[in-house]
Amino acid sequence: MRVCLDPGHGGYDPGAVGPGGLKEKDVTLAVALRAGFYLQNSGAEVFFTRASDRVSWSPEVERDLAARVEIANRGHADLYLSIHCNSAPTPEAGGIETYSFRETGKAAEVARLIQAELVRELGLRDRGVKTAGFYVLRHTAMPAVLTELAFISNPREEKLLSDPGFQERAALAVARAVATSCGFPLAPGESQPPRLVIDNRAVTGVPLQVIEGRTWVELRPFVTASGGTVEWNQETKTIVVYLKP
Predict the structure, then answer these.
(1) HSE-up of 128 (CA within 13 Å, CB side)?
(2) What pLDDT was estimated at residue 62?
(3) Catalytic residue positions?
(4) What average pLDDT does the structure give for the chain?
């Protein structure tokens, strides 16, 4: 099972900004990474449209959306999930809602599962599952869902969205719904760091640990996971690394 997680906004685009200054792009990234590692630890292959605040496309709305779709399609994802925070002109608006392009089909099924799990886990108002013609839902070649975790424009919900514990619970709910929809059990445990992402792909099998504030990885597994090779020259006692172009 190959899942593409798309943290909304990023880089030049902060997304919606709450009354306290919280940026949507920071929340969506935190939740996507956590959800990704829950799924990865359960056997799914996970990749992201972005794994940091750096984006690889030009600062134009249409190009931004097209790039996200292209990453999902090029990666042959079986499921695409875009994660967002909602916003409204009135601070009273609140709750969770989830979108698919059509009312029926696999995407609609996944959307219903994600909505139910988020509402159950987070305890916020259930605004329901809806349909919309969002670019990322129309142009992806696989079932695609977009979820709005909560309203960043609502002072109470903004405070929740800024809480790492809330982010963890949102990620767990998303991962649980995806695992259920795809027919595999979600592995127990938390998505605790350190974690490793290479070229926006969540990677396992690379031993790593944090020592005195620095993260250390074993060279050969790291290079292999990056698509390169490592050779040992016995005569010169030299480690030679070849990275992919």
Answers:
(1) 4
(2) 80
(3) 148
(4) 92
